[in-house]
Amino acid sequence: MSHFGRSGPPDIRDTYSLLVLNITFRTTADDLYPLFDKYGKVVDVFIPRDRRTGDSRGFAFVRYKYADEAQKAIDKLDGRMLDGREIMVQFAKYGPNAEKIRKGKVMESSSSKTRGRSRSRSPRPRHRDDYRDRDYRRRSRSRSRERYDRDRPHRSEREHHRSRSRSASPDRNKDRRRERDDERHSASRSERSMSPTRHSPDTRRSISPRRTPSRGRSDDEHSPQRENGSLDDKPVDSRSPSPAKSDADVS
DNA sequence: GTTGAGCGTT
């Protein structure tokens, strides 16, 4: 029913964006819309998804028409349990209203309602960050790194080298082998794909020469006959006189 | 079928 984000940003003239984090990967905009709509007028709900897989990244953006409603939603929905996962609702940075939020209007409310959440932010390694950046790089920086982009094996080579640079771990080895296997498999497929085409003529050629010898066999068949004849002739020759002799002897 | 830090689509 709700096709938010599918047609692009609807009307972001006076909308306040909220960032919903820690949501399940299966949560969709339709699931968040009713929940957030209960606390205010939601004009748009958007969940960034992966370009390739299409799965949600685990966070969503909810746009409210009014900041007070958005704040209320944050106060009510932040820390709420959704699908067995506690979601975190906070104001989004991106957006035309982000400036206003930073100004202090929302911040004021937020300040007064300090809940002392220790989960605000903590230094943690980025894993998917590289993933996301890489994905975006491939699209926008295509022309900048045309050369590198075109070189697909470059990445594998780099990782390969990196793996080697690091310590040799069994797990790493497994990953490395997996990638190599994939490459090899794809190569195998390529070769196989092309092999029938190229080997096709070979097969025909193989058959051709086979046929030729086939005919040769025919000739051979004839030759054995002649050979037989000669063989027969030979014994016959020896035998020929034999009977004659025997006859002669006998007689 | 999987995972769990973080900020978005025309």
Automatic annotation (TrEMBL):
Recorded GO CC terms: nucleus
SMART domains named in the record: RRM
Alphabetically ordered keywords of this record: mRNA processing, mRNA splicing, Nucleus, RNA-binding
Subcellular location, record wording: Nucleus
Primary localisation category: nucleus
SUPFAM superfamilies xref list: RNA-binding domain, RBD
Pfam families for this protein: RRM_1
Feature: compositional bias, Basic residues: 114-126
Entry's Gene Ontology molecular function annotations: RNA binding
PROSITE patterns registered for this protein in UniProt: RRM
Key word Thylakoid present: no
Positions of the RRM domain: 16-94
GO process terms (BP): mRNA processing; RNA splicing
Composition bias type Basic and acidic residues, residue spans: 127-136, 143-160, 169-192, 216-237
Region called Disordered, residue ranges: 100-251
Name under which the protein is recorded: Serine/arginine-rich splicing factor SC35-like isoform X1
Organism listed in the record: Cucurbita maxima (Pumpkin)
